[in-house]
Specification:
Elements: E1 11-17, H1 25-35, E2 40-46, H2 52-60, E3 65-70, H3 75-81, E4 84-85, H4 87-92, E5 97-100, E6 106-109, H5 112-122, E7 131-135, H6 139-151, E8 155-159, H7 163-174, E9 181-183, E10 193-196, E11 220-223, H8 232-239, E12 243-245, H9 247-263
Parallel strand pairs: 1-2, 1-3, 4-6, 7-8, 7-10, 8-9, 10-11, 11-12
Antiparallel strand pairs: 3-5, 5-6
């Protein structure tokens, strides 16, 4: 693998979030660029929501800034700041990666859902034909819900404490007409695929997002959390002998998709 060598010709990408110190992407994506022979790097940017539009307008003036990776809590706001969006990002109203259009404005896409489904398949949890329960209807959860529906789950139920957010997502996904979509609960009984796309498990005292004692014996369990590397839900599922997919599995796949997107030649 080529080692990145910074110079005045290096193309710059940012990863923006609030907070940002926890992200691991800058090194991994920079190395992925180098492996493709690209002279490009990723720089973290800690930007508060109130300052996001001003920050983006400022960095957009730099002619060597080619891309922005977006993390919490900016995925919805960044979609609104894009001039164009992929069909997927437009449906979700969220973007986790942005690159330049020919006119210098931004084009956004969303890869959290595609990356999560790819990770499920890698680990033997292909979603096709499964009845699925998803906990969390935020940026990542919305993207995963959409990807699960598009991948062919038999049915999807969504559980989120924000009932308005949950119901809005349920209605939009049901409108696609691809499978039944409804409101779920913390009871995972009867589901063959159970996904945690909420922050539950990041804190040492967090309650589990579902009642693990009610997991079906044929259930496959996925989680988006990367720290700890084995979240409590995954540990509990493994203790019951169930197949699992972790946040690290997901984000390795998401990183590959983001790099493909950002590496496309500029017009």
């Amino acid at each position: 693998m080529s080692e990145p060598q910074l110079s005045g010709a290096t193309r710059v990408h940012f990863i923006v979030g609030d907070p940002i110190a926890q992200v691991k992407s800058p090194a991994g994506v920079t190395q992925a660029f180098a492996a493709r022979g690209m002279d490009a790097m990723v720089m973290p940017a800690h930007v508060a929501p109130a300052d996001l539009a001003t920050w983006l307008a400022g960095v957009s003036r730099a002619k060597n800034v080619d891309g922005v990776i977006v993390t919490v809590p900016h995925k919805f706001a960044c979609a609104a700041l894009c001039a164009t969006l992929s069909e997927r990002a437009a449906f979700l109203g969220a973007a986790n990666t942005m690159r330049r259009n020919a006119d210098g404005r931004w084009h956004g896409d969303m890869f959290d859902g595609l990356g999560f489904v790819a990770a499920l398949r890698d680990r033997g949890g292909a979603p096709e034909g499964r009845r699925a329960l998803l906990v969390g209807a935020g940026g990542a959860g919305s993207a995963i819900a959409h990807a699960l529906v598009m991948a062919g789950v038999a049915a999807l139920d969504i559980h989120d404490g924000d009932l308005a957010r949950r119901d809005a997502l349920v209605a939009r996904l049901a409108g696609l007409g691809r499978c039944p979509v409804g409101a779920g609960s913390a009871d995972p009984a009867g589901y063959q695929l159970v996904v945690n796309a909420s922050p539950a498990g990041m804190g040492a005292d967090d309650p589990l997002p579902v009642d693990v004692q009610r997991l079906a014996p044929d259930a496959f369990v996925g989680c988006v959390i990367t720290q700890p590397a084995v979240p409590p839900l995954i540990a509990a599922a493994r203790a019951r002998g169930l197949g699992t997919s972790t946040g690290a599995d997901m984000f390795a796949r998401v990183r590959d998709l983001m790099v493909d997107f950002l590496a496309e030649p500029r017009p």
